[in-house]
Amino acid sequence: MSDNTAVTVRLLERDIQLACPPDEVDNLHAAAKHLDDHLRDLRKRSSSSTPEKLALVAAMNMTSQLLKARSGSPDFEALLGVLSSIEASVDVALADNGDEAIDLPEDSSAEPTVQSS
């Protein structure tokens, strides 16, 4: 059996009671505040909408934002392509300066030094 806590949030002047785990209460209040702000903004722009319609529009807007954020995750294939390109550029630069050796310091905070052979 779960140990959920009853939490009351206020959305568009309506009290709504929800249950959530005790460690999620602050997050629930923050989510309710965000949703209430969004609903109020929608209501200002569309005064003839019912609270139910506003809630549906807000849900669609937030879902769209979530999906856009998720699709913005790094494209690892593209990142690998960029890294390969950088590696090739470094290889070319080193090949052009084949008579120089790069000494990497043991101390990672120190700068590498280039020495001519």
Percent of residues in beta strands: 15-25%
Helix and strand run: EEHHHEE
Instruction: Identify the CATH homologous superfamily of the largest domain.
Output: Cell division protein ZapA protomer, N-terminal domain
Instruction: Label the CATH architecture of the largest domain.
Output: 2-Layer Sandwich
**Range of helix content:** 40-55%
Mean pLDDT: 78
Largest sheet: 2 strands, antiparallel
Shape: elongated
Looking at how many chains there are and whether they match, the oligomeric state comes to single chain
| Strand order, largest beta sheet | 1-2
Domains, number: 2
CATH topology of the largest domain: Double Stranded RNA Binding Domain
Which regions contain 5 or more consecutive residues with pLDDT less than 50? Answer: 108-117
Radius of gyration: 28 Å
Number of contiguous helices = 3
CATH class of the largest domain: Alpha Beta
How far from one another are the termini?
74 Å
For the secondary structure, the number of strands is 4
